[in-house]
Design goal:
Layout lengths: L10 E3 L1 H4 L3 H16 L3 E5 L5 H15 L3 H5 L11 E3 L11 E2 L2 E5 L29 H12 L4 E6 L4 H4 L2 E7 L5 E6 L5 E5 L4 E4 L7 E5 L1 H6 L9 E4 L7 E8 L6 E2 L17 E2 H22 L4 H6 L7 H13 L18 H18 L8
Parallel strand pairs: 1-2, 4-7
Antiparallel strand pairs: 2-11, 3-5, 5-6, 6-13, 7-12, 8-11, 8-13, 9-10, 9-12, 14-15
Helix pairs in contact: 3-5
Bound molecules: 2-oxoglutaric acid and fe (ii) ion (FE2).
Pfam family, one: 2OG-FeII_Oxy
InterPro entries: DIOX_N, IPNS-like_FE2OG_OXY, IPNS-like_sf, Iron_ascorbate_oxido_reductase, Oxoglu/Fe-dep_dioxygenase_dom
Family: Belongs to the iron/ascorbate-dependent oxidoreductase family.
């Protein structure tokens, strides 16, 4: 369900931090840390990236996506071991039954083709169109890239849609991001929405002139023991006669970096919720699960941190208890051959049981049948 009720996505001016103003820095850090915990999304202004550069970047992006489809498919991501390049409309579907209506173009740190044999996971050369096709594209992309000092970035174009069609398609289906931190430049069309878990409602991230949207990804959530939140988000297809353009930086860290609970993120008596993992393994697992994984996160309704803390630390032996329940229901194991007690249910029981079963069926249908509901 979409809702226009406001959810506070803070807009934070980081100018004071960049100019080393001590008191401004303290308050900027405290606002950023609180936004990273909830809602896991914020927008930053005063970041020092020249508006001239972002305008030039978006102009070149329009020129790139306006190329004939054959020229774009010649640069398809499938041609690249590092998964760099073009992706057409409809190639992704993050939510069952709704197609993602967007084109993408992924680049990263550029490797000379002759060094490609030394490339590791997701490393390698970019694929560029002929210079004469989009004059200056490569220069502006790499200028922007250096400015942002990021590791990988993807540019998107979302086709416009009609009100009727918008019910059946998404710009990009609901998902969380794999990496540590995403920095997103969006134009003025709008459509990005974040999910407010307690009320299960979607809320727009209004485009703010000159701002970057910042959101926490799964890697940072893991690193901070769930203190920072990797928030579910999506783009609804713009009901407009114009395309929507955006540029996303996925900061994914160095491949050998170990992601293990930052000690200051543990309250006294708390345990680390995740095993340490290297960035490369984390990315490989996410990449392998790709759409399926992203989709699972929606259906499984990530447990809140109170539950996550409890899970695995239950008293007694939960596996044994569940085994006994299974045995009793199936008259096997410890319950084999035993007479079960019968007891009477109140007259409203069958309605209540049917309601519960309907909810379970709805969740299973929504997830494509690949979710275990306990
Ligand atoms: O284009 C956008 O506004 C968001 C894209 C996004 O969420 C993603 O690629 O992970
Ligand atoms: Fe995303």
């Amino acid at each position: 369900m979409s809702s226009s009720a406001p959810i506070a996505i803070p807009v934070i001016d980081i100018r004071g931090y960049l100019s080393d103003d001590k008191s401004a820095t303290t308050s900027i850090i405290s606002s950023m840390s609180s936004a990273a915990q909830s809602p896991g999304f914020l927008q930053i202004t005063g970041h020092g990236i020249a508006p001239e550069l972002t305008t030039r970047l978006l102009d070149h992006l329009k020129a790139f996506f306006a190329l004939p489809i054959e020229k774009k498919t010649a640069l398809h991501r499938n041609n690249s071991a590092a998964l760099r390049g073009f992706e057409a409309v409809g190639e992704q579907s993050l939510e069952k039954g709704v197609m993602d209506s967007k084109e993408g173009f992924m680049i990263g740190p550029d490797w000379e083709p002759e060094n490609a044999k030394n490339a590791r996971f997701l490393q390698g050369p970019n694929q560029w169109p002929a210079e004469t096709d989009v004059v200056g594209l490569r220069v502006v992309m790499m200028d922007y890239f250096r400015e942002m000092q990021a590791l990988s970035k993807t540019m998107f174009r979302y086709p416009p849609t009609t009100p009727e069609m918008s019910e059946k398609s998404r710009g990009i289906g609901a998902h969380t991001d794999f990496g540590a931190l995403t920095l997103l430049l969006q134009d003025t069309i709008g459509g990005l929405e974040v999910f407010h878990r307690p009320t299960e409602t979607w809320h727009p991230v209004q485009p703010v002139d000159g701002a970057f949207v910042v959101n926490i990804g799964d890697m940072l959530e893991r690193w901070t023991n769930n203190k920072y939140t990797s928030t579910l988000h999506r783009v609804i297809s713009p009901v407009s006669n114009q395309y929507r353009y955006s540029v996303a930086f996925f900061n994914e860290g160095l491949l050998d970096q170990m992601i293990e609970c930052i000690p200051t993120c543990l309250e006294p008596g708390q345990k680390a919720l995740y095993e340490p993992v290297k960035v490369e393994q984390h990315l490989r697992e996410r990449q392998a699960q790709n759409n399926r994984y992203r989709h699972m996160r929606i259906s499984m309704r990530k447990p809140d941190s109170a539950f996550a803390q409890y899970n695995g630390a239950q008293s007694g032996d939960p596996v044994k208890e569940v085994t006994i329940i299974y045995d009793v229901i199936t008259s096997t194991g410890v319950a084999a051959g035993k007479e079960l007690l019968e007891f009477l249910l109140r007259s409203d029981a069958s309605t209540k049981i049917a309601e519960g079963a309907q909810k379970v069926i709805a969740v299973v249908n929504e997830s494509g049948g690949d979710v275990l509901v306990l």
